[in-house]
Amino acid sequence: MSANQEVIVAQLKVLLKDFTQDWDHEFEGEMDRSTKLLGDLGFESIDIIQLVVAIEEDISKKKVPFDQLLMKDGRYVDDLSIGQIADFLVERM
Prior knowledge:
By secondary structure, this protein is mostly helical. The protein has one domain: ACP-like (Non-ribosomal Peptide Synthetase Peptidyl Carrier Protein, Chain A, Orthogonal Bundle). The protein is about 55% helix and about 5% strand.
């Protein structure tokens, strides 16, 4: 993992902890690259949209083509991990 990926993973973890702190869904353990948004953190589709906006405002500081990450072969992906998001951002920044 590159230094850029490590920095972005750390930034995403802070953002995700802030997002989920008031949710009833309890995630056991430490967030890492393999932590899934829906499966582990209890995200819903609207939460992912809000997360995309927060990432663009707080991390990338620019518009990112998230449709390339969120869709594959014309369909929405089932779930995303912190690592997948970090790798995507490193490639686009």
